[in-house]
């Protein structure tokens, strides 16, 4: 089976590729925004390619399934729209031309739901009320995919954590800060201070390796799937608790200070404070894919910290 992974060099894409490489009878045509330095590989840029050009590339790749991990989490509204909304639209148009029978697995985001109700897990039929451009552009991408007429499923992913987490997300950013603080304070004594923003929000954290497994299961599943499936840890974790767990894993013995809007503070944001609760109901993914998260949060944070120390960490 030929599985084309788009966004294969990004955080989640790398884990998807690693998972696929462990499967027998699976071929992985290479495609990315750059093919420099390699004789093999197809150039794909969902933000700029036309549907016709992409259709020619897809015809050459001849995939049985496409897993779209390409996406932008930061940038201005134009950048977010180009990648998160235009990208899926172009991909769907190209697939209809070149590979209409291929299964499309598109990674969406729990940010599409917007603020949740305290103590409630959101199902796939819940109202979508994203607060900012990121959630809004991801929701528009989901709408494009689910209305495409293709054999497609959107996986609405919670907050990924685990090895390779980039500094654009809170777990990776806090790991980088802890690493810097440890370098400045070799003994990580009580004089060290980690200044962060508001950490009072609750989030649904899921290991990136579990996300990859869900994406592969969706790509290989026989028969049609629901249009949208939540992929998360299934539990709400206070961000403050995650930070303290990671600090303990790092051996940090100093103080953690948090104050929204404080000078020099990082980790946490006004947007996070506005969305004080997010938690996904993952029952449908269990029924459709026989998928459940397998990595407890402590194990994900241990892997994140170990990975952050390998060669100074990685970049997305």
From TrEMBL:
InterPro entries: Epimerase_deHydtase, NAD(P)-bd_dom_sf. Pfam families: Epimerase. Residues 3-232 form the NAD-dependent epimerase/dehydratase domain. Belongs to the NAD(P)-dependent epimerase/dehydratase family. This is NAD-dependent epimerase/dehydratase family protein. It comes from Streptomyces cathayae.
């Amino acid at each position: 089976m030929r599985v084309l992974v788009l966004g294969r060099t990004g955080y989640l894409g790398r884990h998807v590729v690693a998972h696929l490489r462990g499967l027998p009878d699976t071929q992985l045509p290479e495609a990315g925004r750059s093919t420099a330095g390699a004789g093999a590989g197809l150039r794909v840029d969902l933000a700029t390619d036309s549907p016709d050009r992409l259709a020619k590339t897809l015809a050459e790749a001849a995939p049985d399934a496409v897993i779209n991990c390409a996406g932008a989490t930061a940038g201005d509204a134009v950048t977010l729209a180009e990648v998160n909304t235009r990208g899926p639209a172009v991909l769907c148009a190209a697939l209809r031309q070149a590979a209409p029978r291929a299964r499309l697995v598109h990674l969406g985001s729990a940010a599409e739901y917007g603020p949740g109700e305290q103590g409630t897990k959101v199902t796939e039929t819940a109202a979508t009320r994203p607060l900012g451009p990121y959630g809004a552009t991801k929701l528009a991408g989901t709408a494009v995919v689910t209305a495409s007429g293709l054999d497609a499923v959107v996986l609405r992913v919670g907050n990924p954590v685990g090895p390779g987490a980039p500094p654009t997300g809170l777990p990776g950013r806090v790991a980088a800060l802890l690493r810097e603080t440890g370098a400045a304070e070799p003994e990580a004594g009580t004089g060290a201070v980690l200044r962060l923003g508001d950490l009072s929000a609750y989030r649904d954290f899921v290991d990136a390796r579990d996300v990859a497994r869900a994406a592969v299961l969706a790509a290989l599943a026989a028969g049609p799937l629901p249009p949208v499936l939540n992929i998360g840890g299934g539990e709400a974790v206070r961000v403050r608790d995650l930070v303290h767990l990671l600090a303990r894993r790092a051996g940090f013995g100093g103080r953690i200070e948090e104050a929204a809007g404080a000078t020099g503070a990082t980790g946490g944001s006004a947007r996070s404070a506005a969305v004080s609760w997010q938690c996904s109901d993952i029952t449908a993914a269990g029924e459709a894919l026989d998928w459940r998260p397998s990595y407890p949060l402590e194990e994900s944070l241990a892997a994140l910290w170990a990975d952050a120390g390998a060669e100074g960490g990685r970049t997305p």
